[in-house]
Structure formats: structure tokens, C-alpha cells
């Protein structure tokens, strides 16, 4: 009752690989649709973030230059 049932004439596997065994089965790639509004939003966001980064860099450089100038002015003042 619980014994497995085997086929009457089993076929042995081929001794050499076939072409079907060598090529993997390709699955269909899902289609991704990107709207022009999404592309525009990403571009505008990138431009805004780049502008903010440039503004932070310019501010940091100007603060560093002002600190060097103030330091040199204060150092000259204490020497006298």
C-alpha cells in the first residue's frame, strides 16, 4: 500500500550533454515604465542637491579664509 511505484521501463540519462542542457532557460524580463515626470523630478532634485552642496563648500571655504585673516590680524596685534 505505501510502497513506491516505479515506471516499467526507466530511461537512463544521456551520456553526453545536449544543447538544451547547456543553454539556461530565459525568463521574460518585466517591463519597467518610467514617466517623464519622474525623470524630471530626479533631475531637478539632483540639481538642487548639487547647488546646496556647492553653497556649503563655498561657505566653508570663506569661513576658513576669514578665520585665517582674523588669526593673522590678532597675532600681529599681540606682538606689539
> Could you tell me how far the N terminus lies from the C terminus, measured between alpha carbons in angstroms?
111 Å
Structural class: mainly alpha
> How many runs of DSSP E, i.e. beta strands?
0
Low-confidence sequence ranges: none
How would you describe the shape? elongated
Q: How would you state the average pLDDT, rounded?
A: 83
Q: Main sheet, how many strands, which sense, barrel?
A: none
Relative helix content: 55-70%
Gyration radius (Cα, Å) is 36 Å
Order of helices and strands: HH
Tally of separate helices: 2
Strand content: under 5%
Report what the structure shows.
By secondary structure, the chain is mainly alpha-helical. It contains 2 helices and no strands. The longest helix is centred in the C-terminal third of the chain and has 44 residues, at 36-79. The protein is elongated, with a radius of gyration of 36 Å. The model has no long low-confidence stretch (mean pLDDT 83).
